[in-house]
Amino acid sequence: MTGPATATRVLVLNSGSSSVKYQLIDMEDGTRLAVGLVERIGEETSRVVHTPLTGDAGRRERTGPVPDHAAALKAVADELAHDGLGLDSPELAAIGHRVVHGGMRFSAPTVITDEVLAEIERLVPVAPLHNPANITGIRTARALRPDLPQVAVFDTAFHTTMPEYAARYAIDVATADAHRIRRYGFHGTSHAYVSRKAAELLGKAPEEVNVIVLHLGNGASASAVRGGRCVDTSMGLTPLEGLVMGTRSGDIDPAVTFHLKRVAGMSEDDVDALLNKRSGLVGLCGDNDMREIRRRIDEGDERARLAFDIYVHRLKKYIGAYYAVLGRVDAVVFTAGVGENSAPVREAAVAGLEELGLVVDADLNAVRSDEPRVVSPDYARVTVAVVPTDEELEIAGQTFALVAADRRGGDPEA
Ligand SMILES: Nc1ncnc2c1ncn2[C@@H]1O[C@H](COP(=O)(O)OP(=O)(O)O)[C@@H](O)[C@H]1O
Ligand SMILES: CC(=O)OP(=O)(O)O
Ligand SMILES: [Mg+2]
């Protein structure tokens, strides 16, 4: 199953719970041909932003209802077609899809067959906000280009190297095994990319460095990466465990759920919605955007202050925990929307950790840039850095590598 033998372009679809991010990249030289985003899917005020990066056409933006993910994918296809970059292009080699949950089975990028798709569907109960959106993306793209290889790149793949003692919950083994209950971890594509870039920033090979990666977006997770391999991560069976997130609680005593059902009369679905959609920052203060929370703090808002403090306290605990797991840490690296943009979060997360060699330089931390950068002073024992993540580029790279290997397999002369 290969695309046209000389095609080098990859379309990447990163379908989230309420958004689709996409990029069209030519893998011959890594040139981005178009990038875009459909957000607030399902609301009246959905927004489509498309930026062609070839030719003279500029950024286009429109607001209006995009009812569901299938409609969002249609909007993406239309925007690309408008610039002559449509899905019918013979230069397209493959479509790469971010798939959040790959369960036990997928530890590498995988060409999507009916059987692979069925397995991704089987995992919906453990990634209810994410896998359904990924599946719609895959189905729509396959319908538009049934001849092209469609590749799934799994959020869970990078974490399959976790040792058993980090991946297994301390519950009855037979029950856990019967239901495949274990810690899988997510955002792996980002953790892999960012830890590799961090090694580059340090001027070392990935094998030589130990890194703590803090991926702080809407969903947020931390990982401990030893010599390029993940040894622990904060998300678990589902993307609910670990850090405080935009709308998710992160770590919580599981007995809270029994209590809510027995005492507050909530159903399973009520509790699920509470912990996934009405908790985290939004549950604590009504806002999940860190910019808005900082603005409110500047105005003296106590609820916003407390939400920020709870967010940062959890983050600091994970930095300490992963420091202990790794023993020696070369770098603590911040990434994703909050990690890349919020200097106050970075500063507060390492405040008081000087004894661990962790310090942030106020001037360096205030720099705004799209480039990987160090924010700790020269004398610091541990480098604190900001490395912008690029899940789409990483997915495109892994997708194209698989297609290229397939081509070579199909034609030994190639
Ligand atoms: N300039 C900024 N300052 C602080 N936080 C920001 C800024 N820009 C974005 N963010 C935060 O980043 C979040 C989105 O992160 P992102 O990684 O794009 O999320 P996701 O990919 O999970 O949708 C926003 O909800 C907001 O809290
Ligand atoms: C797995 C996960 O939480 O993803 P996102 O941050 O895109 O919601
Ligand atoms: Mg993200």
From TrEMBL:
Pathway per the UniProt entry: Metabolic intermediate biosynthesis; acetyl-CoA biosynthesis; acetyl-CoA from acetate: step 1/2
GO cellular component annotations of the record: cytoplasm
Pfam families: Acetate_kinase
Gene name per UniProt: ackA
Active site residues according to the UniProt entry: 155
InterPro entries reported for this sequence: Ac/propionate_kinase, Aliphatic_acid_kin_short-chain, Aliphatic_acid_kinase_CS, ATPase_NBD
Protein's name in the database: Acetate kinase
Binding-site residues for Mg(2+), renumbered to this chain: 14, 391
